[in-house]
Specification:
The protein is α/β, with parallel strands linked by helices. The chain has one domain: Rossmann fold. The chain contains ten helices and seven strands. Strands 3-2-1-4-5-6-7 form a seven-stranded parallel beta sheet, with helices on both faces. β2, α4 and β3 form a beta-alpha-beta unit. α5 packs parallel to α6 and α6 packs parallel to α7. The longest helix has 29 residues. It binds nicotinamide-adenine-dinucleotide. Nicotinamide-adenine-dinucleotide binds next to α3.
């Protein structure tokens, strides 16, 4: 088992962290509905975003800042780039802290959680966005580097993070809380050359939806869980793929906008584009081999990863 935790870091000085903490310790709460109105959810909120140094993570962070978040913790393996973003957001008036963390490692998460608490207190919003993919046949996956790491980053990390912060989120019903778990369309259907990635996203979808139901049954209505299931997005993570029929490659802006609005509303599952839901419905009613024919020959889903290159490994 690998444990390559990056050191937890901080874009702000110790004294500025202390000053910031006292400034954001009591964010304004005014909300009359347990789930909050859309504007009350983000204004004054303390936000934690994983995978915040690149792709959609950056857009979530900028959106949170633009809509009035009190403070944002930017968690990423790539601490240097997260620090640049933190500095940009701080320069525009939003308290932001870059935290170097490896979400595949529980100890690293616990260190990052301590740094985050020191900076902003307990988060009101958690966006589990960090993710990795290995696009090859299952038997070409390295057992540790590819299989175990993908499951840890994409499935276990989000569970450990939410488990760490959930007791405080439950206890503080004074303001609305949100958890956005970024899964994938790959969590809703099987696809060659992404077996472990699909497995990790199926795990996330099942966990995230079960968590939502538990919170609803236990009447913790101030916490809303949204699971996001997008198809391919042009961030570079899936470089080389061919988008299936009626499922064009989305811009990161379109994808983040859909996830963000769903999160604020407390929508349980956001699928994007509409063909993701269509695929789930058709797969549900067709015999498996008939669905295979439709997915492969008509929509071109099964060959979409044939020319995958992904991000170049530095
Ligand atoms: N891009 C797509 O086509 C697509 C489609 C569906 C779902 N998604 C999901 O959306 C999320 C974001 O995707 P993206 O395209 O913006 O990816 P990206 O590669 O641009 O960004 C991912 C970020 O996660 C960080 N990260 C990776 N491993 C980490 C670790 N162990 N600890 C901490 N940080 C780590 C990376 O440093 C990077 O900053 C992922 O969960 C991905 O699976 C992406």
């Amino acid at each position: 088992m690998s444990s390559s935790a990056a050191p937890a870091g901080n874009a702000a000085s110790a004294s500025s962290v202390a000053d910031t903490r006292s400034a954001i310790a009591s964010p304004s709460t005014a909300t009359t509905r347990p789930g909050g109105t859309r504007s009350s959810v983000i204004r004054g909120a303390r936000v934690l975003i994983t995978g915040a140094a690149s792709g959609m993570g950056v857009l979530y962070a900028r959106r949170a800042a633009a809509e009035g978040a009190a403070a944002i913790a930017l968690w990423d393996l790539n601490e240097a780039t997260a620090s640049d973003l933190a500095n940009q957001l701080s320069a525009r008036g939003t308290q932001a802290l870059a935290v170097g963390v490896d979400v595949s490692d529980r100890q690293s998460i616990l260190s990052a959680a301590a740094r985050t608490r020191e900076f902003l207190g307990e988060p009101d919003i958690i966006i589990n966005n960090a993710g990795i993919v290995c696009g090859t046949t299952f038997w070409e996956h390295d057992p540790e580097r590819d299989i175990e790491r993908t499951m840890r980053v994409n499935a276990l990390g989000p569970m450990w993070i939410v488990r760490e912060f959930m007791p405080a989120m439950i206890a503080d019903a004074a303001r609305p809380k949100r958890i956005l778990n970024v899964a994938s369309a790959a969590g809703t259907l099987a696809n060659p050359h992404m077996s472990v990635y699909a497995a990790s996203k199926w795990a996330m979808l099942g966990w995230s939806e079960s968590l939502r139901l538990e919170l609803e049954r236990e009447k913790h209505r101030h916490i809303r869980v949204t699971t996001f299931c997008p198809s391919y997005i042009d961030t570079g993570m899936f470089k080389g793929v061919r988008a299936p029929l009626l499922t064009p490659m989305m811009t990161p802006q379109v994808a983040v906008d859909a996830a963000w609005r769903g999160m604020l509303r407390g929508t349980p599952v956001v699928s994007k584009p509409w063909t993701v839901k269509l695929g789930m419905a058709v797969r549900g009613v067709l015999p498996t081999r008939a669905w295979d024919f439709v997915a492969d020959r008509i929509f071109g889903v099964y060959s979409s990863m044939d020319h995958f290159t992904g991000r170049s490994q530095a």
